[in-house]
Amino acid sequence: SNPLLEAFGNAKTVRNDNS
Description:
The structure is a single chain. It contains one helix and no strands. The protein has one helix at 3-18. It comes from Nymphaea colorata. GO terms for molecular function: actin binding; ATP binding; cytoskeletal motor activity. It holds the Pfam family Myosin_head.
């Protein structure tokens, strides 16, 4: 699990959840 990928995935998930 890369930190960059995890950060990007987390941001995308949060945005998707917020939507």
